[in-house]
Amino acid sequence: MNTTGRARSHGLRHRVILAAGPGRWRRTILALLVVLIGYAAADLFWPLHRDLSRFDPIATGTLETKIWRSYYDRQHVALFLELAQTLRTQYHFPWLRSYVGAYYGASAAFTFKEGKERRDYEKALPALQTYFSLIRNTGNRDFDVSRTTSLELEWWIVHRQRERYPPGALGSACAEAAASLYRVPAVSTLEHGQLRAQAMLLRDAREEAGSVTDADWATIESLLHRSYLSLGHAVSSTNAVAGAR
Fold first, then answer.
1. DSSP state letter for 50
2. How far apart are CA 62 and CA 222, in angstroms?
3. What is d(CA 95, CA 117) in angstroms, rounded to the nearest whole number?
4. What is the mean pLDDT of residues 124-134?
5. Could you tell me the pTM of the whole model?
6. 72, 153, 170, 190: which has the fewest Cβ within 10 Å?
């Protein structure tokens, strides 16, 4: 082959490589997008069977204390991030799903916070139901989403309107909500509910007296630790009984 022929051949190969290069990149990018979309879809929507009874009571109590502080201080972003962390570490949510769940949970909480009466509070129900639907789709407890959502909102209302209810009503309402979520008898979650209510009422009393100090929050956190230790025992005891049958 003469020099002219070799030059033409080289130029042709160069044009073929240039033409093929963008195509390969497009196919590679498309493949990556398909993988990412598939991962996101699985993360968000794939039904999982994570064990909801496997949570760290101390970590859960500490996270809930932080969430309460953010709620009362109207720190929307902080509450969102703390709730996402709770869903990932204690409810075993995948990464993306934890943020979606936190969005709906935080939205429900702050919608409720702005309410003045029951019909206002009930505006939180759609977001709260989506929140519990995500927990149902992630966990291994086949709970009634609508009932659990209603019971969760109910204890929020009992707490907000506590002067209208008899002593002990808040603890019982918290116990009913937990029992519905974990599908255990409410009597087994009563101590959990009572301790959680005690923590709430302590915060309320300190707020009404002037301010909630760091020492008060430390006491509240300790009560929540005890509350979730009790819940963990109730749930694990129920699992043990079910496994023996």
1. B
2. 8
3. 35
4. 98
5. 0.83
6. 72
